[in-house]
Write a structure and sequence with these properties.
The chain contains ten helices and 13 strands. The chain has 311 residues and is of the alpha/beta class. It has three domains: 118 residues, Periplasmic binding protein-like II (D-Maltodextrin-Binding Protein, domain 2, 3-Layer(aba) Sandwich), CATH 3.40.190; 87 residues, D-Maltodextrin-Binding Protein, domain 2 (3-Layer(aba) Sandwich); 87 residues, Porphobilinogen deaminase, C-terminal domain (Double Stranded RNA Binding Domain, 2-Layer Sandwich). It has a five-stranded mixed beta sheet with strand order 2-1-3-10-4, with helices on both faces. It has a five-stranded mixed beta sheet with strand order 7-6-8-5-9. The longest helix is centred in the last third of the chain and has 24 residues. The radius of gyration is 19 Å and the shape is globular. The N and C termini lie far apart (48 Å).
Length: 311
């Protein structure tokens, strides 16, 4: 076993919180192991244009993968939803940590101490909703096309400051990120998955390593959570089978229970006018196949035409 492991992370507060969690878990399991965190700037951190413009998938991960190949780091900690479904040759996901709450959250300003409107249905007409996610945007537009939607970028603190200053009536953020930052008190309401499906892998951490680094893989084995990996395998297979990096809003959420996986998947147009959603269930031994089968079902029921329109 190596004496020191270098953990690669983006420099945002949330990314560093996630990297420190992995660092503490490694040190808990291997008390004599030394670890340090190396901050890597990614193109998604530098480029402040909307994510739909700069390309979404891979913009927060490529530079971390470059650091792995250059052996500047031994492992990279990612929000799994940011990792492309097809990885470059030579790297692999060694562990997927136990998932936090995968749902999206409505976040109202601090001035709304006990808001009766802490639901999508309860928002007033023309309320300005801040979100940077095409997936969230499409589903929100489908539910409430009378709302006004505005792009919001920046770290969580910046977004919350803009909200509290009155630039937005409400933000839609990930429950997981707020909880990891100790900001669960800012969650005005968690949006049920029945109403808004999350991004594939949302709430889970993926730890990427060089594929040949068996020592590191063995060490990270203790951080891998079986049921989270199964659920995320189904979700990512669904995304991969639809084309992986396409710019259409795609959502998926799998639940593992009693040796079964139930997977919900969704494809929408960017305006939220067409929402295609379906569900599939099967054995935990079929996680990858279930994702592919659900994608094929949606493709046959209209998603192929939506993808063709995007091209």
């Amino acid at each position: 076993m190596k004496q020191t492991l270098v953990i690669g992370s983006r420099g945002s507060q949330l990314a560093l919180t996630q990297a420190r969690f992995v660092q503490s878990e490694l040190q808990r399991n291997y008390p004599s192991l030394e670890t340090r965190i190396e901050i890597i700037k990614t193109s998604g951190d530098v480029n402040t244009e909307p994510l739909a413009v700069i390309g979404g998938m891979g913009v927060f991960t490529k530079e971390l993968e470059d650091a792995l190949f250059e052996r500047r780091i031994d492992l990279a900690v990612h929000s799994l939803k940011d990792l492309p479904t097809t990885l470059p040759a030579g790297v692999t996901i060694a562990a997927i940590c136990k998932r936090e709450d995968p749902r999206d959250a409505l976040v109202l300003p601090r001035s709304k101490a006990n808001p009766a409107s802490a639901s999508i249905a309860g928002l007033p007409g023309k309320a300005i909703v801040g979100t940077s996610s095409p997936r969230r945007l499409a589903q929100l537009k489908h539910l409430r096309n009378d709302l006004v939607f505005a792009e919001v970028r920046g770290n969580v603190d910046t977004r919350l400051r803009k909200l509290d200053e009155g630039q937005y009536a409400v933000l839609v953020l990930a429950c997981a990120g707020l909880r990891r930052l100790g900001l669960e008190n800012r969650i005005s309401a968690a949006i049920p998955a029945e109403q808004m499906l999350p991004s594939p892998g949302q709430g889970a951490l993926g730890i990427e390593i060089r594929a040949e680094d068996q020592e590191v893989a063995d060490a990270l084995g203790k951080l891998d959570h079986k049921f989270t990996r199964l659920a995320c395998t189904a979700e990512r297979a669904f995304l991969r089978s639809l084309g992986g990096g396409c710019q259409l809003p795609i959502a998926a959420y799998a639940v593992v229970r009693d040796k079964k996986i139930r997977l919900d998947g969704l494809v929408a147009d960017t305006l939220g006018e067409q929402i295609l959603r379906d569900r599939i269930s099967g054995s935990i031994n079929e996680a990858e196949q279930l994702g592919s089968d659900l994608a094929e079902r949606l493709l046959a029921n209209g998603a192929r035409q939506l993808l063709a329109q995007e091209l």
